[in-house]
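Form 12-C: Joint structure prediction
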Amino acid sequence: MGNNTPGNKNRSLILSVGHTLLKNGAYSEELKISEFGVNFLVANTIHGILTENQINVSMLSNIRIYDKLRVIEQDKPNFVIEVHHNAFNKKCTGFLFMYKKGDKEGKELGESICGHVKYTNIRPCIEVVDIKGNYLIWNSPVSTIIIECSFIDNMPDFSNEITHFEAVTKQLADGILAYLNA
Ligand SMILES: [Zn+2]
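Section 2 - Result
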């Protein structure tokens, strides 16, 4: 028996792609692309890294939030991470995560990812305290966090993420792995 067995044996994860093809989220005027496609690329790349590291991970993409919740209720993973990109006033930069008030594990997972993100600044995390804060996080039966990778409407912040895409996705995956393997 190897001592290499990580602590993730029974821990499963769903990576959810924020938004859908039809309602595709925040938009970059400069690049004329919206969040959904970028969210998919980030989630899919992280999915590949986690799979290589023997994490039990699956992806949810291009389905409505109600159907997502149904799958989560059926599969009962340990964690759900939904990937997003932020937009505000074109001057904001940085990474942040959102979690449900009282969800200690979700908060720790988010903090672990923050500890590995070097490609941009870290913004304060957001605690979801009611259904208006975030529908998915509030209604999910398991620890669920949202990560906002960068500001898609801020060209320097977003192009930095895209230019360093491999390093960025590795940092995000390393943060997840560090938590699951701890
Ligand atoms: Zn979004």
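Section 3 - Comments
The helical segments are 35-52, 65-75, 104-116, 135-139, 155-163, 165-180. Residues 10 and 145 are 19 Å apart (CA to CA).
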